[in-house]
């Protein structure tokens, strides 16, 4: 499947952010070309940042490719990217994670993605998640639904109708995240309460949620650039995404995403003490 057809991909956009979505899709095309050019390269340059996480030459080049397009087409908009930080001041801000899943990228594991979001007045309005290593892309603009392409045809996304925790399939991302915030016991309780649990990792499980294949995704230690692009896709697909506190803030370092039906039940579940048995 080719991802280099943003005009076709954006055909479903009709609302106020249609032009922004078209631009985001074209930026994703440029990002895909840049990131795939160095994926699984034997001589990939890898460095360690001050926070002990890795950055590759592809992370830097991919973010530059996106920023170059924005400099030409949206010079008055602000940009916040993982690798080069904040540029500009505007109520319209593009939030970029050039390679979400750098650890997978540098190991040659194909589960990583470029995340592009437009946040206006603090609310994510446009989101694109592009996963070129498996030829998949998901996108949404406020009011226009969430979409992906299957066999060359755009398909609208819809979260599942599962309405009990006991019947849910969930992704908890990594145990290490939960351990860092003292919530490993919650992962164990979760595994006993749901139908199926997996740690799929990074952006992909959120897209599985939007497609109706999972009912909940939760993680800790997230930054704005990790989740801003996911928000419009999940909400336009019918789901809900908040911090563990229930707040809609992008800066609370935690995220709970669900099919909406089960959002409050899962919030309640995680508020229970470890000794309390949940009621599915």
Question: Overview of this structure, please?
Answer:
The protein has 280 residues and is α+β, with helices and mostly antiparallel strands. The protein has ten helices and 15 strands. The strands form three sheets. Strands 4-3-5-6-7-8-9-10 form an eight-stranded mixed sheet, with helices on both faces. A five-stranded mixed sheet has the order 12-11-13-15-14, with helices on both faces. Strand 1 (46-48) and strand 2 form a beta hairpin. Helix 2 (18-36) packs antiparallel against helix 3 (57-73) and helix 7 (204-210) runs parallel beside helix 9 (230-236). Mean pLDDT is 92; it is low at 1-7 and 273-280.
Provide tags for this entry.
five-stranded mixed beta sheet, eight-stranded mixed beta sheet, disordered N terminus, alpha+beta, globular, disordered C terminus, 32% helix, 280 residues, 15 strands
What Rg, in angstroms, do the CA atoms define?
18 Å
Kindly report how far apart the N and C termini lie.
40 Å
**Number of DSSP strand runs:** 15
Helicity, as a percent range: 25-40%
């Amino acid at each position: 499947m080719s991802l280099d057809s943003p005009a076709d991909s954006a055909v479903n956009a009709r609302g106020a952010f249609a032009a922004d979505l078209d631009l985001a899709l074209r930026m994703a095309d440029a990002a895909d070309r840049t990131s795939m050019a160095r994926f699984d390269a034997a001589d990939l340059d890898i460095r360690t940042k001050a926070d002990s996480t890795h950055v590759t030459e592809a992370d830097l080049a991919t973010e530059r490719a996106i920023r170059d397009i924005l400099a030409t087409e949206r010079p008055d908009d602000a940009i916040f990217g993982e690798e080069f930080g904040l540029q500009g001041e505007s109520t319209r801000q593009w939030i970029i994670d050039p390679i979400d899943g750098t650890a997978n990228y540098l190991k040659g594991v194909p589960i990583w993605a470029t995340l592009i979001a437009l946040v206006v007045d603090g609310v994510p309005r446009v989101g694109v998640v592009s996963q070129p290593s498996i030829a998949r892309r998901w996108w949404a603009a406020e009011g226009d639904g969430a979409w992906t392409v299957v066999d060359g045809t755009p398909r609208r996304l819809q979260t599942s109708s599962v309405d009990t925790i006991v019947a849910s399939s969930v992704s908890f991302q990594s145990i290490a995240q939960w351990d860092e915030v003292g919530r490993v016991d919650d992962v164990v309780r979760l595994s006993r309460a749901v139908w199926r649990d997996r740690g799929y990792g990074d952006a992909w499980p959120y897209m599985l949620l939007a497609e109706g294949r999972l009912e909940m995704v939760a993680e800790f230690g997230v930054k704005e650039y990790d989740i801003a692009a996911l928000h419009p896709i999940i909400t336009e697909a019918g789901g809900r995404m908040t911090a563990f506190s229930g707040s809609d803030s992008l800066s609370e370092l935690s995220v709970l995403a669900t099919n909406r039906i089960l959002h409050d039940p899962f919030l309640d579940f995680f508020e229970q003490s470890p000794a309390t048995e949940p009621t599915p």
